[in-house]
Design a protein that fits this description.
heterodimer; A: mainly alpha; two-stranded antiparallel ribbon; B: mainly alpha; 75% helix; 0% strand
C-alpha cells in the first residue's frame, strides 16, 4: 500500500488546490439525499402512518367513523379474533416447511449440478428460470395443473394407479398445494447460492480430503457443510423473510381458502382490507412486522459481520 | 476433479432432473398453442395442429396489449429513475466520507424486507387523496420506492469491489467527484450497473400487490390483466396460458442475459 496516498491526503490536496470545491462530506450528502427523501416518503412515512392506524378504528367505507381506541385492535386480534392465531400457526408452519424442504432439496440439487461436465452452465441457467417467473404466472400454471378433473397432475397420479387428489380446492390439501408450488419455485434459488458456496471450496481442501479417503456423509458433514455454512445462513434468512410475507402466490392459487385453510398472514390482511377493517389490518401488519424484524435483525447481523470480514481480508489479498 | 463413474451417473441424473423440473413450463407453453377443445381433456393431448387463436384472443378480446404496454412504460421508467438515484447514492455510501454510511446502508437494506401489505394502506389513502390512483405516474413513483433499497444495496456491493487506486489517481489529477463518477466509475462498473438494472426490471415487472391496490383500468399492468382473466373466465386456460407466456418472454431473456451474475443479485451481494 506504500506509495499510494491515503484518502485523507487526497481530500486535502484536492481542497487546497481547488478552493471553490465543496468538501467531500457535503458532496456525499448531496448524492444520498434524493434517495433518502424518496425512501422516507415512500417507506418510513407510510410505516409511521400505518403504525398510527393500528391504534384507531378506521373503516374503508365510512371514513368519518375513525377515532383513537388505544390498544383495542391488538386486544381484539390477540384475544378475541379466532382467525388470528390460526393464520399465525399457518404462517409458521408455512415458513418451517417450505424453507426446510427447499434447503434439503436445494442442497441435493446443488450436489447434482456441482459438476464439470460440458453444458453444465446451461443446466444451471435453465433450472433457475422458475425463480424469475412472476407469482401470477407461476400460480396460474400450477392451478391449471392442479385442476381436479382435467389437471395433468391428477392424470399422472391416476395413471400410476393412485386415487385422484383434491389439491387446491379442498381445505385439507390447499396449504400443501401452495407449499409444493412455492418449493418448486424457490428450490433453484437455494441451489444456485449453495452451488456458489460449494465452488468456493478450494481444490486443495477437496484434494486433501480425497487423499485422506474422506468421503460420503463424513465428507459432507465435516468438510462441505462447515465451509458453506455462511452461505447457508444467508439463504435461510433470505428465504424466511420472503416466506413470512408471502402474498401473491397464495392469493393467485387459493385466496386463503377454502374457508381459512390456507389463510397466510398477508392474505388475511388483504381480507381485512376487503372487509373495510383498516385498523385491524394495520394492527395485524404491526404484529407481522415484529415477527419479520426478529428475523431481519439476525440476518443483517450475520450478513454485516461477513461483509466486514471480507472487507478486512480484501487489502491483504491485494 | 476426476470424473468417477458415480459422477457420470449423477450427471445423467442432473440432465433428467432439469428436464423434469421445467415440465410445468413446457406444459403451459403447449397449452397456449393448443386448440381450445383439446385443452380440458381428461387425458392430456400431446400432438395437435398448433394454433395462435389464444394469442389473438388475448390481444383482441382481452386487450392484453394495453397491459403489456402499461407494464413496459411503468417498469422501464421506474427502473431508469431507480438506477439514476441508486448510482449516486450507493457510490457515496460505498466510497465517500459520510458519517454513518454503514448504518445508513443497513437501514436502506432493511426497507427491502418491508412487507408490501404493511405499507399499502397509506399508499392507498395517499393515492385516493392526491388523484394518483390508477395513473402511470403513481405506479412509477411506487416502483421507484420499491426498487431503490435493492438497487442501492447491490450497486454498493459492486462499488466496494472496485480498486480504489483508479479513483484516487483521478482525484489527484483534479477531477471533481461528479467527473470521477461519470467518467471513471460508470464505465468500469457498467456490468454491475447492468445487472442491478436487470434485476430491478424483473422485480418491478413481476410485482402484483401494489398494482392490485393502485390500478384499475387505465394504468393496469400485465400481471393484473393475466390475473383478472382467471377471475372472470375461469375456463379459458388457452388464453390465460398465452398471456402467461407473453409476460414471461422478457423475464426468460433476462435470465440468459444475467448468467453468472445471477447469484450475486439473488443473494443481495452477500454471495459472489
Amino acid at each position: 500500500m506504500t506509495g499510494v496516498p491515503s484518502r485523507e491526503n487526497v481530500g486535502t490536496a484536492a481542497v487546497s488546490s481547488y478552493p471553490r470545491r465543496l468538501p467531500e462530506r457535503r458532496v456525499a450528502l448531496l448524492l444520498v439525499t434524493p434517495t433518502l427523501v424518496i425512501l422516507f416518503i415512500l417507506s418510513i412515512y407510510p410505516l409511521i402512518w400505518a403504525g398510527m392506524m393500528a391504534f384507531r378504528v378506521e373503516n374503508l367505507f365510512n371514513p368519518a367513523a375513525g377515532k383513537w381506541i388505544g390498544f383495542r385492535n391488538f386486544d381484539f386480534l390477540l384475544t378475541k379474533d379466532q382467525t388470528f392465531w390460526k393464520t399465525m400457526w399457518l404462517t409458521g408452519l408455512w415458513c418451517t416447511a417450505t424453507v426446510s424442504i427447499q434447503l434439503l432439496l436445494g442442497y441435493m440439487l446443488a450436489v447434482l449440478l456441482d459438476s464439470t461436465m460440458r453444458g453444465i452452465g446451461l443446466l444451471r441457467t435453465l433450472i433457475v428460470i422458475p425463480v424469475f417467473i412472476s407469482p401470477v404466472a407461476m400460480g396460474l400454471t400450477w392451478r391449471f395443473m392442479y385442476e381436479p378433473i382435467s389437471g395433468i397432475i391428477n392424470y399422472l397420479i391416476t395413471s400410476a394407479g393412485f386415487a385422484r387428489y383434491t389439491w387446491h380446492t379442498m381445505p385439507e390439501s390447499s396449504l400443501i398445494s401452495l407449499m409444493i408450488t412455492d418449493i418448486w419455485q424457490w428450490t433453484p434459488f437455494v441451489t444456485l447460492i449453495l452451488l456458489a458456496g460449494m465452488q468456493g471450496i478450494s481444490t486443495e481442501v477437496v484434494e486433501a480430503a480425497r487423499l485422506d479417503r474422506v468421503r460420503g456423509w463424513t465428507y459432507t458433514r465435516r468438510i462441505v457443510l462447515p465451509l458453506i455454512w455462511p452461505v447457508v445462513t444467508v439463504v435461510v434468512l433470505l428465504r424466511l423473510v420472503d416466506a413470512i410475507r408471502v402474498f401473491d402466490l397464495a392469493w393467485v392459487i387459493t385466496r386463503g381458502g377454502p374457508g381459512t385453510s390456507s389463510l397466510l398472514a398477508s392474505v388475511n390482511m388483504y381480507s381485512q382490507f376487503q372487509a373495510g377493517r383498516l385498523g385491524i389490518m394495520a394492527a395485524y401488519g404491526f404484529l407481522l412486522l415484529i415477527a419479520i424484524n426478529i428475523v431481519v435483525v439476525s440476518f443483517l447481523r450475520v450478513l454485516y459481520r461477513q461483509e466486514k470480514e471480507t472487507r478486512r481480508a480484501a487489502p491483504a489479498a491485494a | 476433479m476426476p470424473r468417477t463413474p458415480l459422477r457420470k451417473a449423477l450427471d445423467v441424473l442432473a440432465v433428467f432432473v432439469v428436464a423434469i423440473y421445467l415440465a410445468p413450463l413446457y406444459w403451459i407453453t403447449l397449452t397456449s398453442i393448443k386448440p381450445t377443445k383439446l385443452i380440458n381433456q381428461k387425458v392430456p393431448v400431446w400432438s395437435f395442429e398448433p394454433t395462435w387463436e389464444h394469442y389473438f384472443e388475448a390481444f383482441g378480446r382481452f386487450k392484453f396489449g394495453h397491459g403489456l404496454l402499461n407494464s413496459l412504460i411503468i417498469v422501464v421508467t421506474a427502473t431508469t429513475i431507480t438506477m439514476l438515484l441508486a448510482v449516486f447514492c450507493s457510490y457515496a455510501l460505498a466510497r465517500m466520507k459520510l458519517r454513518g454510511a454503514d448504518t445508513l446502508s443497513l437501514v436502506i437494506l432493511s426497507l427491502r424486507f418491508l412487507p408490501g401489505m404493511v405499507i399499502i394502506l397509506p399508499y392507498f389513502m395517499m393515492f385516493q387523496r392526491t388523484g394518483l390512483m390508477d395513473t402511470h405516474i403513481g405506479m412509477i413513483i411506487i416502483y421507484v420506492g420499491f426498487g431503490l433499497p435493492f438497487a442501492v444495496w447491490l450497486l454498493r456491493s459492486f462499488f466496494l469491489d472496485l480498486p480504489r487506486e483508479i479513483e484516487e489517481a483521478a482525484r489527484l489529477d483534479g477531477l471533481s467527484w461528479m467527473a470521477v463518477i461519470w467518467r471513471i466509475i460508470l464505465p468500469i462498473s457498467l456490468p454491475g450497473i447492468a445487472v442491478t438494472a436487470i434485476f430491478t426490471f424483473v422485480f418491478d415487472w413481476n410485482e402484483l400487490l401494489f398494482a392490485m391496490y393502485l390500478t384499475q383500468s387505465h394504468a393496469v399492468t400485465a400481471q393484473i390483466q393475466v390475473f383478472k382473466m382467471v377471475d372472470l373466465y375461469n375456463v379459458l386456460w388457452g388464453t390465460i396460458s398465452s398471456a402467461v407466456i407473453m409476460q414471461l418472454i422478457p423475464v426468460v431473456i433476462v435470465v440468459f442475459l444475467l448468467q453468472r451474475h445471477m447469484i450475486r443479485g439473488l443473494a443481495l451481494g452477500a454471495v459472489k
